[in-house]
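Re: that backbone. Tokens:
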């Protein structure tokens, strides 16, 4: 009977060049899942939404700023040259038409940017919800593993049995509402937040004493 050797953990320094086998397959599957999510969200956009997205991407480039400065300079220069040559100025100083065009462009630009930000905010809300669900599921799995390890430690005769209050507290599943209540309580009292993990232990101890 052959015993399978577990695959080594994936390090943060590993790259696709030095990864192979299941590790590379898992990373590729995760990347495909993320790309499929973004592709699905982009396919939901309507035609006008795509046009506004393209316009928003253009106004976010330095080229758009250069176009505005060039247009303003040519507009002012054209009026100055017309005045010097004795022709009628199409927009004499202080250039009310130019101010109106720039103001209208600023309004349209802000509207386009807000429309895109609204869509990105909804997308970010979906990602946050997914991340919360994954974190809750991970916490449940970790709690189950702690319970199994504690049972194994109690059953093994060669392992000294001792009381570990921190392990006992972590054996209890975390209640998100109690964590939020503890964070709100510390925020109202002005106390600094606890290090990662300590807040959860305090909540579990409080729940165990209740």
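Recovered sequence:
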């Amino acid at each position: 009977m052959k015993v399978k050797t577990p695959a080594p953990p994936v390090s943060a320094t590993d790259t696709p060049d030095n990864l192979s086998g299941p590790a590379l397959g898992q990373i590729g599957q995760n990347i495909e899942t993320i790309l499929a999510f973004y592709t699905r969200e982009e396919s939901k956009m309507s035609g006008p939404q795509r046009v506004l997205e393209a316009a928003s991407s253009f106004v976010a480039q330095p080229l758009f700023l250069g176009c505005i400065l060039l247009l303003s300079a040519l507009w002012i220069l054209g009026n100055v040259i017309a005045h010097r040559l004795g022709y009628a100025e199409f927009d004499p100083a202080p250039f009310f038409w130019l101010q109106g065009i720039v103001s209208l462009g600023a309004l349209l630009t802000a509207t386009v940017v807000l429309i895109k930000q609204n869509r990105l905010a909804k997308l970010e809300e979906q990602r946050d919800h997914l991340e919360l669900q994954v974190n809750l599921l991970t916490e449940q799995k970790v709690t189950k593993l702690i319970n199994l390890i504690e049972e194994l430690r109690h059953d093994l005769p060669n392992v000294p049995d001792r009381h570990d209050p921190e392990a006992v507290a972590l054996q209890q599943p975390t209640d998100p509402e109690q964590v939020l209540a503890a964070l709100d309580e510390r925020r109202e009292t002005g106390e600094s937040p606890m290090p990662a993990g300590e807040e959860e232990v305090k909540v579990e101890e409080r729940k165990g004493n209740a």
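The helical segments are 22-43, 47-59, 62-85, 96-155, 165-170, 176-189, 198-209. The two ends are 50 Å apart (CA to CA).
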